[in-house]
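hey m, so remember when u said the tokens were messed up on ur end? i reran from scratch. heres the input so u can diff it against urs
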Amino acid sequence: MFPGLVPMSRDRKPEVMDQPGLDPAEHDRALRGLRRINAISLCVPGLFQHLQAVAREAPGNRLSVLELACGGADTAIALAAIAKRRKLNWTIQACDLNPEAIHIARRNVLRQNSSVDLFVADALDPPETEIFDVVYCTLFVHHLDPADVVRLLSVMASRARRLVLVDDLIRSRLGYALAWAGTRLLSRSWVVHYDGPLSVKAAFTPSEILDLAARAGMHNPLLERNWPERYRLCWRPN
């Protein structure tokens, strides 16, 4: 029996990685653990399929992409690497509110000789001028209260010409069990062990996220359920 079975109602508590003052070495160790977990989830291939479909509609397969709340930027770096191998004409930028996360992300970019451009910014801030073909975020929505999710989705919709993607956890008993076991199997970080199950408790169900998308003015979004107990919300402006 896994401890602390997830309740039916949402239970959002502060996660360690959300708090200021986390030791940089622990922050880095946690992000490396999340990198392995995201690799198992096949998040990047799923996102890439959607980006590729949008790029095929543009002259020269050109595509501008923005990731919000990027953390260590592993997803953006992986997408850029695939695009480079396939000689695709994509530009990828990524931002995070936490300067320490961007510091780690820049180190990752340098280590992998990536073309991803990074900057510090709040994902909830409305755009000033620049918009992108695609705006996406992964494993961020469950950190927010419902009102801020609506705000985030509204901002994403205003910044995306052609596609919004949101990839996150599904709140369920199966999801909690997978998070409890998977974080311990794939990472030695106590931060990941603590935050992983809490993330599932804070996550939304598919019906809840669809309701929040409707409140943000996203009409007729597509919601895909993916292994392991994750969803991908896809919305294209009319």
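this time it looks ok to me. The chain has one domain: 20-235. if urs says something different then somethings off w ur setup not the seq
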